Amino acid sequence: MRVFFKFFMIVFLLAQSNFYAQSIELKIDNLIETKFEADNPGAVFLVAKEGKPIYRKAFGKANLEMNIAMQPEFVFEIGSMTKQFTAVAIALLEEQGKLNFQDEIIKFIPDYPTQGNKITIHHLLTHTSGIKDFTKMKELRKISKNNLSPKELVDFFKNEPMDFNSGEQFKYNNSGYIILGYIIEIVSGQSYEDFIQKNIFDKLVMIATYYASHEKVIKNRVSGYHNREGYVNNDYISFTLPYASGSIMSTVDDMLKWQNAMDTNKLVNSKTKQKIFTNYKLNNGEEINYGYGWHIKEISKSISLEHGGSIFGFKSMGVYLPKEKIYVIGFSNCDCNSPTQLTKDIATLFVDE
């Protein structure tokens, strides 16, 4: 009788688990299918629990002209999710003793006009430097197709008036991460591309993650689109402009490797990780809901570590719930159709359960 009861309980629990998995899958499908239609630019979504995928699907088209259906392993431009990699690259150099988060940027770029401010690496990482965001400058269109060196790009915006004194406000700022990329090159003696390839992509076996290139043949590269009274191919921009603030391409599978590495301290130690995921404050003590390369927010009162990305033709969003150990990542190949809210809605399913 006891053996039968144990057998019954095992069968019952397996059935319950299978029913739950099917129920969650159906709920996620229903959320995504309302936004991404079969014949339009599409998306890929992955959900992982405790580091293992439990949902991984593609929707819509990867290329409209060739009528190619989207596949889960396809490569997308991830835009500002690049900032996570730049922040960790800085953290690696900090662990090696080659810089400190509190170092002033003039230690590395002596001629940078700080306009009376003490601007630190910490300020750049947390978007509290006050430096003008170069993507908001009208002159950007004139150089958008030019291949610039990091120094030339920094020179493009460095003499602009400050938006505010360092540490007084939080204002999302791509210029800060351009300077961080330049500092990585100065300190390491390598290009930004080579540094992240050797110290992050190769180490984590992220075989489908790249510093973006228009010239390089990249297997499974997805085409990007705008919707301007109908779908059109995405505008050209030199990847030397988004640079360390937005020039990485990846897959949802490689991004799970990345998330798992952060979760298990594979790249940086626990002390450094704590600094990365601290909710920092302004000079007046107000929290900014941002650490180093990640927003620190809440979903249904559960802590959420997240970041999105937007670059011509592409949108991306990743959400990690540390308590539930749930990671949701979504990529879209039309900047008209963001996966941001969907990833949060999917994550909410696991908080509410």
From TrEMBL:
Superkingdom of source: Bacteria
Extent of the signal sequence: 1-21
Signal as UniProt keyword: yes
InterPro entries given in the database record: AmpC-like, Beta-lactam-related, Beta-lactam/transpept-like
Ranges for domain Beta-lactamase-related: 30-335
UniProt keyword annotations, A-Z: Signal
Entry-linked Pfam families: Beta-lactamase (PF00144)
Name of the featured protein: Beta-lactamase family protein
